[in-house]
Amino acid sequence: MPCCSSDSCASSAIQGSSRFRRVLWIVLAINAGMFVTEIAAGMLAGSAALQADALDFLADAANYAISLAVLGMNLRWRAGAAWIKGASMGVFGLWVLGTVVWHWLNGTVPHAPTMGLIGTLALVINLVCLVLLMAFRDGDANMRSVWICSRNDVIANAAVLLAALGVFGTGTGWPDFVVASLMSGLALQGAVLIMRDAGREWRSVRPGTTGVPDLR
Length: 216
Hints:
The chain is mainly α. It has helices at 6-15, 18-45, 48-69, 75-105, 112-133, 141-170, 174-204.
C-alpha cells in the first residue's frame, strides 16, 4: 500500500475524480464561448477593459484544457502545467498593458452601455464558474491555479462594470484605461503566486518517484 499524508491522498483522489474532470469541461466550454462574445463586443465598443477580459476568458479556456490534459499524472507533471499557466497569465498581463497604451495614444472613448451589458453577463458567468470550482481551491498547485484564475475573473468583471460607470459619467476613456491597467496588475500578481507554488512543488518531487511531495 502506498504511503502518503492525508492531505496528499485527498488531493490525489480529487485530481482523479470524474467530478473535477466534468467541472473542468463545463468551465472550459463556458470560457471559450465568452471569449468569442466579449472580444467582439470589446472591439465594437472600443473598450480596452472588455478586450482584456475577453483575452482572460481565452487564457482561462486554455488553462482548463491544460489541467484536463494532466489529470491523473504525478505531481511533478501537474506542477509543470501550473507553471506554464502562470507564465501565460503573466504574458496576458503584459499584453493588456500594451493595449492600454494603444487606446490612450489614440484617445479612444469606449461605448459605456455595451461595456455595462457585456460586463454584467461576464460577471454572472464567472460567478457560476467560481461556485463550480470552489470545492477544489485547496488542492495542489495545478488545482489552486484554476481557482486563482476564476477568482481573478470575478474581481476583473466587477472592475469592468465600474469602468463602464466611469466612462458614462465622465465621457472619457480614462476609467477604462485605469481598470484595464489594474486587471493587468492582477494578472501579473496571480502569475507570480501560481509560478511560486508550482516551482515549490516541482522541486519537492524527485523524478521517477510517485509524485508525493516532501514539503518539510
